[in-house]
Amino acid sequence: MRLWVAATIIACVVAIGFFLSAPRTSDRAENTVPSVALESIPEVAMRDVYKKGTHTITGSLLAPNVCTVASAVATLQGAATSTESILVEVSMPVDEGVCLQVPTRVVFQTTIAAPDDLPLVVTVNGSPATTSAP
Predict the structure, then answer these.
(1) Helix or strand holding residue 49 (H, E)
(2) 72 - beta bridge partners?
(3) Residue 110's CB: how many other CB atoms inside 10 A?
(4) pTM value > 0.70
(5) What are the residues whose beta carbons fall under 8 Å from the beta carbon of 132, sequence distance 6 or more?
(6) What is the pLDDT along the chain (134 residues), one digit of tens a residue?
(7) Which residues contact 110 (CB under 8 A, 6 or more apart)?
(8) Phi and psi based region of residue 116 (left: phi greater than 0; alpha: psi -120 to 50; beta: remaining)
(9) What SS3 class is residue 19?
(10) What is the largest CA-CA distance in the chain?
């Protein structure tokens, strides 16, 4: 008789413990859709070194992860008779693979033959960007 009472008590304790620890639908966190962040204007730290008719433009910008690679191409902008600025087009393709999602600064470099006093205009993936000194 004692064995049956002990077995019943142990079974009740296990059943009550399981019932209290099992997740319920009311305990489940709601899946909320993350708010879409407005795309901010990327900031590019740039340096332009002019030597013997050639601009060497180096820079860096913040990438979303460690695996992102940035490349740049510089072209002259302006009318057929005069050059107004140097357009630096930075491309940073979206990395689709598995990668550590930690914002990381990536660097790029490009060269172009142009006059000395031209301003730099920068785009990142086709969007205008702001510039600052490195």
Answers:
(1) strand 43-51
(2) 90
(3) 18
(4) no
(5) 43, 44, 45, 46
(6) 888 899 999 999 998 888 777 776 665 555 554 544 445 678 889 999 999 999 999 999 998 888 888 999 999 988 766 678 899 999 988 877 788 888 889 999 999 998 888 888 999 988 888 888 87
(7) 56, 57, 72, 73, 74, 88
(8) alpha
(9) helix
(10) 108
